[in-house]
# Entry
Amino acid sequence: MRISGPFRKKNIYVDAKITGMHSESMERTAYVGFISEDDSLHDAAAVAASETDEAEASAILFAIKTLRRRLRSFTVICDHESVVQKANWKGKARSSGKNSQVFLDLWRELDEGSVVVQPLKTNPAHRFLNKWVKERESKPQVKIGDE
# Structure
């Protein structure tokens, strides 16, 4: 029997992008986004992250915090395998080494249950986030004093 509707567990694909990574003259800006398998849920935002792992973990955290009140349970799918592995650490593994605040917040959210994080090789959220960032960056930015 296939479950559908509000009781079906949704797959949520996440992605992160840092612009300016390959240029020393450009400012780095990190963006995260998510999209549901059926395209009914999606969102993106700029976040404070300067490294890929931190940005990908922020994408998972952003999706969980945004969707926790809307969905009873869901699976977050991320194409950054090392981040997925670390997100799924339990017990003593979490206390080994230096952990960023993003991972500490992410583990707190995951410990509440109802959300699973899984790896994926090809990510549909990648295309969504690239389009969102391109649209955002093509709009003129108004700076204070330029009005």
